[in-house]
Design goal:
Layout (H helix, E strand, L loop, with lengths): L22 H24 L8 H8 L3 H4 L1 H16 L9 H20 L4 H14 L2 H12 L5 H30 L2 H21 L12 H15 L1 H30 L5 H9 L7 H10 L3 H21 L4 H27 L6 H30 L2 H30 L4
Helix pairs in contact: 1-7, 1-8, 1-9, 4-6, 4-16, 5-6, 5-7, 5-9, 7-8, 7-16, 8-12, 8-13, 8-15, 10-16, 11-15, 11-16, 11-17, 13-15, 14-15, 14-17, 16-17
C-alpha cells in the first residue's frame, strides 16, 4: 500500500495518487485511509479544545481568576498557530508519514507533563507545546487532498474533515466527563495515551508520501515562499480572512459558554459535557459542504454560512436564560463554521497542488490567530460585561465576514461583466 516516495513530474501533481492498480482495491484503500486520516485528525485537534470546559476547575486548582484561566485557551491556540506557521510547511519538504508520527510523540510527551504540572505558568507553557505539535491534523488534511481523485476532492476532504470536526466538538464532552469522574488532570493523561497510539497507527498504516517541490535550499527557502504565496493568491487571502472571522465567533462562544452555564444555569461538569455534545451536529456540515463545492456552489454556500453564523449568535444572545436556545444556537454556529471551513479548503487546495502544506499554513495560521485573539477578548469581555460581551463580539465578527463575502461577490460580478480588453 506504499506510495512511491520519489518526486513526480510537475504535470502529475494535479492527479490523484494511485494506491492500487485495481479500481476496487483503490476504493477500498481510500476508504481505509479516510478512516485513519479522519480519526487521527480528530484525536490530534481535540488536544486544543480539551481545556475549554475545564477552565473553572483549572482556575480553582491554581488559585486564579476566570479571566486568567481563559489564557490557557489562548496559549494553546497561539501554540497551534505557531505550529501552522513554522512546522506545517515541512509537509511540502519532508516525508509526511514520518513527520506526522514523530510530531505526535511530542504531543504525547507535552500532555503527560501537563498532567503533572504544579503551577499555572508551567501549564501555560506546556499548553503552547501541545498546541504547537497538534498541528499534525493540518499536515494530514493536505495529504488527504493529494490522495483524492480530483473530481471528488471536496467530498473526500470533507469526509476527513468530519473526523476532525468531531474531534473538535466531542473534545469538550469527553474532557468534561473525564474531569467529572477523575479530575481535570486525567484529561491530559488520556490525551498522552491517545497521541502515542495514534503515532503508532499512522506509522503502520499511512503510505509514504513526499511532495515534489522546486525548493532546493531547504527550510529557509520554504519559509520565504510562504509570503510569496500569500501575495500571489488573492483567493487564499480572502478565504483566510473569512475563516479567521468565523473561527473568532466559534472561539468566543465556546471559551465563555462554560462560565455562563455554571453561573446562570448552575450546570455540573457532567451537564456541561452533555451541552457540549450538541455541537457534534456541526460535523454534518462537512460532507454536505464538500459536495456543494464539488458542484460549483461554493460561493453561494459561503454567504449562507455567514448568514447562519449571524443567526446563531443572535439566538444565543436572545436565549441566554434558556439552555435549549443556547444549545440550538451552538448547533447553528458549528454548522456555519465547519461548513465554511470545508468550502474554503476545497477552493484553496485547488490553487497550487505543489504547495498545499504552505497554502494551509497561510490559511490556518490566520484562522487560529483570529481564534486565539477572540478567545482572549471573550474572557475579558465576559468578566466585564457578562454573557453579552462575547455574544456581541461574535455578532460583530460574523457580520463583518458576511460583508466581506458580499463585497467579494460584487467585485467578481463586475469583473465578469467588464468588456474584454
Amino acid at each position: 500500500m506504499a506510495i512511491a516516495g520519489t518526486p513526480r513530474p510537475a504535470s502529475a501533481l494535479n492527479d490523484h495518487v494511485t494506491i492500487a492498480p485495481d479500481r476496487t482495491d483503490r476504493t477500498q484503500h481510500l476508504g481505509l485511509l479516510t478512516v485513519v486520516l479522519a480519526t487521527a485528525c480528530g484525536l490530534a485537534v481535540a488536544n486544543i479544545y480539551y481545556c475549554q470546559p475545564l477552565l473553572a476547575l483549572i482556575a480553582r486548582n491554581f488559585g486564579t481568576g476566570q479571566g486568567r484561566a481563559a489564557i490557557v485557551v489562548t496559549a494553546t491556540q497561539l501554540g497551534y498557530a505557531a505550529g501552522l506557521i513554522f512546522l506545517m510547511p515541512l509537509g511540502d519538504l519532508l516525508e509526511n508519514r514520518k513527520l506526522a508520527s514523530l510530531t505526535l510523540l511530542g504531543t504525547a510527551l507535552a500532555a503527560l507533563l501537563a498532567a503533572f504540572s504544579p503551577s499555572l505558568p508551567l501549564f501555560l507553557a506546556l499548553s503552547v507545546v501541545i498546541g504547537l505539535t497538534s498541528v499534525v491534523a493540518q499536515i494530514l488534511i493536505p495529504l488527504a487532498a493529494h490522495l483524492a481523485p480530483p473530481a471528488e476532492r471536496g467530498h473526500f476532504v470533507g469526509r476527513v474533515m468530519s473526523g476532525l470536526l468531531l474531534g473538535i466538538l466531542l473534545a469538550r464532552t469527553v474532557s468534561s466527563l473525564l474531569a467529572a469522574a477523575w479530575g481535570w488532570r486525567s484529561v491530559y493523561f488520556v490525551a498522552a495515551g491517545l497521541m502515542l497510539a495514534t503515532a503508532v497507527v499512522l506509522w503502520q498504516t499511512l503510505p509514504s508520501y513526499r511532495v515534489q517541490t522546486e525548493l532546493d535550499n531547504g527550510y529557509p527557502a520554504l519559509m520565504r515562499s510562504i509570503g510569496r504565496l500569500a501575495r500571489q493568491e488573492p483567493a487564499l487571502r480572502r478565504r483566510a480572512a473569512g475563516q479567521a472571522l468565523m473561527f473568532g465567533c466559534f472561539s468566543a462562544f465556546w471559551t465563555s459558554i462554560t462560565f455562563e452555564l455554571i453561573r446562570t444555569h448552575h450546570l455540573s461538569q457532567t451537564g456541561i459535557a452533555i451541552f457540549a455534545l450538541v455541537g457534534a451536529g456541526g460535523a454534518l456540515a462537512a460532507p454536505i459542504a464538500g459536495r456543494l463545492a464539488d458542484r460549483g456552489h461554493g460561493s453561494t454556500a459561503t454567504g449562507a454560512a455567514f448568514g447562519l453564523a449571524v443567526l446563531a449568535l443572535a439566538t444565543v444572545g436572545l436565549g441566554r436564560h434558556d439552555v435549549f436556545l443556547l444549545a440550538a444556537g451552538a448547533v447553528l454556529l458549528d454548522l456555519a463554521v465547519q461548513g465554511h471551513q470545508v468550502l474554503s479548503q476545497q477552493e484553496i487546495y485547488a490553487l497550487r497542488p505543489d504547495a498545499r502544506a504552505r497554502i494551509n499554513t497561510v490559511y490556518m495560521g490566520s484562522v487560529f490567530l483570529g481564534g486565539s485573539l477572540a478567545s482572549a477578548a471573550s474572557g475579558t469581555l465576559y468578566e466585564r460585561f457578562g454573557w453579552g460581551g462575547p455574544v456581541w463580539l461574535g455578532v460583530g465578527l460574523s457580520t463583518l465576514g458576511f460583508a466581506l463575502w458580499a463585497g467579494s461577490r460584487v467585485r467578481t460580478r463586475r469583473t465578469l461583466r467588464a468588456p474584454a480588453g
